[in-house]
Design brief:
single chain, 200 residues, mainly alpha, AhpD-like, 9 helices
Length: 200
Amino acid sequence: MSRLRPLKPQELNAAQRQLYGQVSGGPRAAGPQRFRLTAGDGSLTGPFNVFLHAPTVGAALSSVGEAIRYGTSLPARLRELAILTVAGHRDSAFERYAHERVGRSVGITEEEMRALRNLDDLDLDDPAEAAAYAFCKQALRKRGVDDAIFAAAAEQLGEQTLVELTALLGYYEGVALLLSVFDVGVPDDPDGVCHAGCDD
């Protein structure tokens, strides 16, 4: 049980309704869905229900998440590798639940996901992915990166993508903290029928 009760659509105030619509009807709900955005009672799952409890801050966080997921130069597979690196670092059940499903859809293998759960070494053929993974692991573990790791990542990714990747790490670490503090786990029926257009 989460420390925050699930907020159902009929009990939301105006600010909460606006944020609810942003999550349930925005980019996250468009196209194929790999994880549940809403529960059977209409409440939002994962961090999105947490966002509703403080809708001004929650809306800003939601917008940052949308920008990172849908508005960056990060290739989809590299993006999901980075998110799952955060999930492994923070042992975040919801982030793992959601983004392993997304990861499979962009070509992350089961062997790679097993390694990501423990931040084990990965034999990545793509030099940009290899540099990004080394960057993410060190940034999360040491709260910074040394010159060699930075230079390799900058060479492979470029400055814009490296800024976007670092922002991704900060955002998903923040989400993992919210999930941990408020004891938010995966949905009770994670493989059940989705209520926001899931294609599973």
